[in-house]
Queue: 4 jobs
Job 1
Amino acid sequence: MSVTVLLFGILAVVAVASGISTVMSRNPVASAMSLVLHFFTLAGIYLTLQAQFIAAVQVLVYAGAIMVLVVFMIMLLNVGREEQMRENPGYRTIIGTALGVMLAFQVGKTAFTDVAGRHVLPPGSAVTGTTEALGETLFKMYLFPFEAVSLLLLVAVVGAVILAKRKI
Amino acid sequence: MGENNIVVSYLPLIVMVAVGFVFGLSNVFLAEILGSRRNKTNVKLDTYECGMEPVKTARERFSVKFYLVAMLFIVFDIEIVFMYPWAVKFRELGEIGLVAMLLFMALLFAGFVYVYKKGALTWD
């Protein structure tokens, strides 16, 4: 067993555990912190897949900025412990269980279907994840989507101001 | 590049994460072990607020103004993230890259001007 597989195993276990902890925590702040740990383990998994830039961005943007948004949201709504706002679960449990079973079935089917070479990274992937390779691809092949992103971000800026500002 | 070389190149990162994790955890447990178990009065167990007496709970609703700041931070954070792949390939991409980035920046600068003119950066 190579070191990469071992690392992936550790990261995967922590990722699943922190994911479960995110959903199961009664305290929303504890949930948010579990999500931070989850984002970090995802960044580690990206590293094992040779996606260095995505790994760094995962930590900077998700574990940093997006989590600020989530924590602010908890502060804004002043969400207390979950017991206080629990209502009759009923149909939610049924739908949730059904969707969970479907997901488990799909994951199991994919995991046990034998696809040749699935566990091997495609050749050349050791360089595709670097910042340089990404810049090359982004500014040559995907130039238009890149410019469209700026428009999307512009819409987000205007939307944030319109929604959250009292006096515009 | 062999598989193990990659792991070796990230060894400092792994060590740093491990040390940080152990340091944080050990502080919590060492405080429990080494700290005095006696004299746990109500005053000592109270929330420490730089010597001030705590007046009320901190779990109250915050203004939506904080959310606006966080939202604007994320947007411009993502803008900066896109500059990294451009910056490392700046020379190879040449004029086309420069023009593409200028257009990208111009659209977001328009957003910045909008935010500034609407007074979203002031705390009113």
Job 2
Amino acid sequence: MKIRIVPPEPEIEYSEDYYEWMARAMGEEKAAWARLPREEREKELTWYHENFNTPDDLAVWPPELDGGKYNP
Amino acid sequence: MPVSTPLEFLKIFAGQLQQAEIPFAITSGMACVHYGLQQITKDSDWIIPAEDLGRLRELFTRLEGDLPPWRISYRQICGAPLEAEFMAHGWTSHLSVWDSAGSVEHKVDIFSKPPRVRSEELQMDAEGWASRHIVAQMKRTDRDKDWPIVHGLGQQLSEHQRPEGLLHLAELNALLAAWKAATQQEREQMTARRPLLRMLADRSEIDPLYFERRILLERLIWERVNEQRHTRYTRPWRRFYRSWRQELDWEWPSSEAFTAQHQRLLGAARGYGLPPDPLADTPKEALVETAVAAVCQVAAAAKQEVAEVLPPVYELLP
């Protein structure tokens, strides 16, 4: 098996339809987060990781249920 | 020494793999964060070809000897040894990695034959991110929360003018727009992979409820095929694990170095008959047929109706 390396897709601004779908399917807050540039989104995720014992992909939101990092 | 966050660890581990010239693609949750479709995750999922797993184990041995030393351990969930004889056939290996003494536990899952992904389509960009299409294929699970992500990746692909968007979109208007933008050749190629698209060509007006039912049937097919495939791995793993844990003074995961853990797990897997290829004795067509029968029953659908949206076997179980 070979993994083919391809050039990265250019960053594009998605249509309003895309963000409207996201707000409908995932909520306004997530749609607003998705509009942020990638660096900002990563900064926000790092903040969560530093301040909460955030759940992994299989766990249930909200992270508070899993205990805060400094408040286990 | 500062503790690495999951995102920092991702970059550190990717750097180690690059230095060791081990090919990889980052997929699943972290890739969805990267593509702006999932806000939170801390585990990471990596596709690493089976033929490179020996070098990955060597890297782990070296990192455990580094200063400060890393610690790498298997986790106690359904998975196989990080060995080509198992991993080339669709098993996953689940590890915990600590990249320093005070590090948090980083959960690392490794695939060599990711589910639903055709090997010829395996692509990543220069930073190591699996393509949107690959991530979308892997997200066709039986978890409700994964399906909006599949559609979202489809939307993004379409906005990047990629015909694969047609394989993943689940809303009528978005599909019609993508269909309109595709060339005739792309339409034919994508319809061969996703028969549901035929209705876009055949009908001038589509009843939204008719469309919704077909989308539901199609999703049920993916879910039930996934269930059929997945249980072929979990059942023998449970049998293997129950037998193995009868050993005297059994403890897993042990506190040994990774190489010793690996030898112990590999010996147990071979000794207690964990099948390297759990799908070897079952024709893929038979798995799909069982899944289709379940869909017909659950959705009260005629076999013909399900057949209209049934993707080819090579698409469901490549």
Job 3
Amino acid sequence: MKILVAVKRVIDYNVKIRVKANHSDVDLTNVKMAMNPFCEIAVEEAVRLKEKGVATEVVAVSIGHKAVQEQLRTALALGADRAIHIETDERAESLAVAKLLAKVVEEEQPSLVILGKQAIDTDNNQTGQMLAALTGLPQGTFASEVAVDGDKVNVTREIDGGLQTISLTLPAIVTTDLRLNEPRYAKLPDIMKAKKKPLDVKTPDDYGVDVASKVSLLKVEYPAERKGGIKVASVDELIDKLKNETKVL
Amino acid sequence: MSILVLADLHEGQLAGATAHVVAAAQAIIGGDIDVLVAGEGVQAAADAAAKLDGLSRVLVADNAVYAHQLAEPMGALLVELAGDYTHVLASASTTGKNVLPRLAALKEVSQLSDVIAVESADTFLRPIYAGNAIATVKSADDLKVITIRPTGFDAVGNSGSATIEAVEVVVENSHSSFVKEELAKSDRPELGGAKVVISGGRGMGNGENFKLLDGIADKLGAAIGASRAAVDAGYVPNDMQVGQTGKIVAPDLYIAVGISGAIQHLAGMKDSKVIVAINKDDEAPIFQIADYGLVGDLFEILPELESKL
Ligand SMILES: Cc1cc2nc3c(=O)[nH]c(=O)nc-3n(C[C@H](O)[C@H](O)[C@H](O)COP(=O)(O)OP(=O)(O)OC[C@H]3O[C@@H](n4cnc5c(N)ncnc54)[C@H](O)[C@@H]3O)c2cc1C
Ligand SMILES: Nc1ncnc2c1ncn2[C@@H]1O[C@H](COP(=O)(O)O)[C@@H](O)[C@H]1O
């Protein structure tokens, strides 16, 4: 079976962001970028399914400007077999991404599509669910366990109250949560080999998808700053402050 | 303008978050607000919803196909109902996040996730980059599909008496089915709505040591949370994770114990009124946002704190 994984290029999760002086957006110039951590987990899961002999081919896809090819090469180094880059300089929002991915699903006919549950830049947590709705395929979001069994997949989901397991008929859409696996690091020889793996470049026009969104970003600001507090010397002082200064006890 | 709010359920009962989402709906319009309660055996939840202030109607879709609120039938139901509304809202719970984007996609509109404030009927504030920036976004879509972060809005009261109407829409679902659920059982308040939260991190060392938080939580009526590191290490279950990709809390008092203060953790708790940090490393980043920091070994501090409270 074939697995499609969607990977997004985002700011590295360790970087402290800066807001542009004109408040139009977050400033990404000269900022360290990386694969979205949830997408790393998605790639890892796909590669493990291939290593187990469940999957035969892993295809990575990313939508964005030319630089996203860097993350696609990372996916190839981690074990994906080929990659598709849908190139656009526009800010592709979740709906547009889902529409494009739906076209790729139609073309590639994968048995499983794995996405991250959330991109850590927009924090949207939407694309997988939208893709499932558009393709009419069942969804297993926030997965902490994925078990393929014949033409079904059992997905254990991290939900507010604990864990939920659902059974989906393949083909299906899965989005990853943190506990699904621990992604490996790419090894140097694999990074070299990845350079020779096929990477197709397409455009949204090739798929007849308009990426424009009806949501406009009016302003980006820093959140209200928390004033740093004080250090207390003892448990007694802490209790006293909580009782008498802030009155939360 | 009129708004449909998808009620959040927890084990078939109305979850506290719904009253916050209704408050968000009231901030958008003065007009008609309906709540949809969908599930199996949800009459009690519907009755509870009808008491929320400011509602016109509570729509009840009580059918086995909506049991466990699986995404596919829930999305299809919302699509059937959404035509009558300008906005559809749900809480940014795992159910809201699971279901609402399906409605948006099927209606070919965007979804605004985790809205924390309302500027007007089409303009909203939402955190991005783990809450390190706040975006003001304006939607020109005909239907606004929005998940609400409950901590952004004070809950509405309970003196309403909305009419309850059954919804007869029944959809089909053949592609997904429920297998099982392992829900955490606890007598403590729900993490998202608790007035006091005490959370443990990697510094707790193991799951057994989390018991050190129990006595304090008992005395304070607190919910217990955790950092991702504590969950990943298997000390405690996933539903206790506070942070960018876990639960968002904003209690009156948040006590972080053995937690360093990574931005992903702060994203889930920095809107708490008062923050206390207990950490043996006096340079831990958590101290930069804590109102009261206590430097020291948690294994000495926690028993002392419990006995003196
Ligand atoms: C995509 C992504 C999403 C994430 N989402 C979340 C999230 O939602 N929530 C979250 O919490 N994290 C999240 N993280 C992880 C986050 O980056 C940190 O790794 C995590 O918060 C660290 O947890 P911690 O503070 O418990 O552990 P550490 O950073 O290891 O800190 C442990 C602290 O305990 C202190 N300590 C140790 N022993 C003692 C003692 N005896 N007495 C007192 N203090 C002691 C140490 O000084 C240290 O400061 C996410 C990361 C990524 C990449
Ligand atoms: N531009 C993109 N290219 C490829 N995949 C994406 C893109 N945007 C989002 N995704 C996928 O959708 C997931 C969730 O993103 P979001 O819904 O935007 O939070 C990500 O983890 C990716 O797997």
Job 4
Amino acid sequence: MKYAMLICTDEVAYDAMSPAEAEASTEAYMQFMAKFDTKLLGGERLRPTTEATCVRVRDGQLSTTDGPFVETKEQLGGFYLVDAADLDEAIEIASQIPSAAYGTIEVRPVWEM
Amino acid sequence: MGDVAEPDVHAAVARAFHDEWGRVVATLIRVTGDWDVAEECAQDAFTIALDRWARDGVPRNPGAWLTTTARHRAIDRARRAARGDAKLQEVAVLTGEEAFDDSGIPDDRLRLMFTCCHPALSEDAQVVLTLRTLAGLTTAEIARAFLVPEVTMRQRLTRAKRKIEHAGIPYRVPPAHLLPERTQSVLAVLYLLFNSGYSDPSRPDLSAEAIHLTRMLVTLMPDEPEAIGLLALLRFHDGRRAARVDADGAIVTLEDQDRSRWDRVAIAEGAALLDRALRRDSVGPYQVQAAIAAAHALAPSADATDWPRIAALYDELLRWMPTPVVALNRAVAVAMADGPDAGLALLADLDLPAYHLLPATRADLLRRLGRADEAAAAYRDALALAPTEAERRYLARRLASVT
């Protein structure tokens, strides 16, 4: 089965990391990706929500606004697309995403067509 | 075998329903992979049994008979629905797998239990799925027990089954490294189920179902001391059931209960189970709670209760469950062992907003200290928060005694 793993963290806290902490975090992600190389179908880190733009079309009218869709304490900061046998394996993989130690990983099954 | 008298057949089918429903559904879920089809085929099998057992007699192994019949229903359904190769393959899987004999039905109930109680499901969903698929309660019965409209309960069940299917919750007993955490999840559901019946005397069925299911779990996991500990705990609680509510429907506290009305058979079973669990030398929160319940249930009178031992057991329980509710119970034990002042001091630190037993306990300790006005105010706080009529009656009576 395919699962999207949405990595939600507090951007402000993340920005406040020292260079050494940021390097350790990057290193942890490299190790995670090496370990689950065969399970990861894709994934990206996202720029912060301060650089987000919301786009809506209503009655043919385009509107663009600054900022994220909703203001929350934790923001979507990245995602992986993962291939796992079942939810237990998906949970096992999600629990090893470095951000799980301080943020939240939302595990969403992909809608199979 | 000739015709069997109708009432006997009805009784035999009802007994088989109680004993075997979970086993039939659990097996059918495994072979069909579809929870709704499994329930419908199980239902069909019991309906067919009413007719066949009257004609042919009650089979020697009703569980095996029902499972085989349900399985044949599933095959018929798959055949009728078969269009194209994929569906025909399903039929092949249903008919091909494992030859049946009366003795060797594999027991799938344990995997059903773990799947129903998977922590990815909400606690509500875990409880209702367990009641529906393992205990065989109808959606209407479950709705009545939880005081929600039937349509709401049906949606809740549908949503839960949909999540199991779409999120890929596996149908299996978890591997060893997940087993301790998942077992706690199963035990928590069973205890929650018991308590939803126990806290409201107008809904006793849920407690009986919880005991039935915990007994099933102990049979399926005979080496799991926490499962045995939970069954012991439930038997101790259940043994005091008759004395818990008085003729007016008000709660009677442990101290004031008529101990001659306790069910000695249930309490003796609880004590034997607790011994069996503790011999495994792997203590856990349910065994500690059972030990506390044992200290109460085995005391010859309220005055003879060994409160210092109970306070020490609560210390132990706090290590497993560092929650304010456990701390509140510990405060009560300390108050009984060392005096109301010691208990009151412990209550001051507790953060339990909207939990009626905190002001109720404070009121009780103040009453014992003769501080009637403060006790009355605390009883009023508790009354405003109490969730059941039986508890409100008890608190109103206590309030009247100090004003």
